[in-house]
Design a protein that fits this description.
The chain is α/β, with parallel strands linked by helices and 337 residues long. Helix content is 29%, strand content 25%. The strands form two sheets. The protein has an eight-stranded mixed β-sheet, with helices on both faces. A four-stranded antiparallel β-sheet has the order 2-1-4-5. β11 and β12 form a beta hairpin. The radius of gyration is 21 Å and the shape is globular. The chain starts with 5 loop residues before the first strand and ends in a 15-residue tail after the last strand.
Amino acid sequence: MEQHETILEVRSLKKYFPIEKGFFRRTVGHVKAVDDVSFQLQRGEVLGLVGESGCGKTTLGRCILRAMNATSGEILLKTRDADIVDITTLNKRELRALRKEMNMVFQDPFSSLSPRMTVLDIIGEPLWAQGMRGRQLETRVKELASLVGLNAGHLNRYPNAFSGGQRQRIGIARALATNPNLIVADEPVSSLDVSIQAQILNLLQDLKEELNLTYLFIAHDLSVVEHIADRVAVMYVGKIVELSETEDLYLNPKHPYTEALLSAVPKPDPRIKGNQIILQGEVANPADPPSGCYFHPRCKYAKDVCKTTAPPLTEVKPGHYAACHFADELELEGVMV
């Protein structure tokens, strides 16, 4: 992947949900869904964001798109006019004008499409919101449908006439409608059959190359991310614990949590016996995380310092970041890519 200009920079982003109790709804604590996350995304790049369910991946994606407001931090987006805008500071009018520059592909292709709207209306809705009307809108929708493998005969049908894979193609076409700079793909293949997953991944890859798209690709399946991502960020309880180029992360993980995730990736050859790591205990509670490193209660390499001091995300080697006190010392097992 060639390096281009930074299109998105997230700085110290936090999203805390208040815990309220009592008649007067007093705030007695917070669920730290996203806890001090920072990263950059280059134009034309695919950044895979992986982790267990509940680690904050989707919340992070929605904060980036301002589908929900962050508690603190900055989200800097480079617009088509080369202006750098902090999304967190925009009012409703300013945000509406910026909506055409970023969009989302949702996880569930069944609930994310209105059953009362035709395909023409679904794909055309973002264009309508941006002021496009009539023949111009219909022509653009036909172009988008063709781009994702649908034909003009599909446009007057309703979503219940389509399979899951076709519905996700409709969702992708809708996301592309306004030529966005940034697309957040929130587990776009997790609810599809394995054979259909490959088709959608290939489509997303082809669209990226053809339109020079930039993706934040959210997933919990590392075997899916391997095929599409240029870099991978691993999240655990609201924090990024490792960030690296895809091949380097798979071959040479630097965080014990990443090692455990990679050990669970299915092997294509049944004769290859993997050494799967079974993590002990439960995922840390984001409303009451443990002291020090959040992962230490489940980590077989943990020492006393891990229980008291939270490790910062530091550059272990060029382009490879890990939040582990012993990232330089541990010899962790990766997988072949």
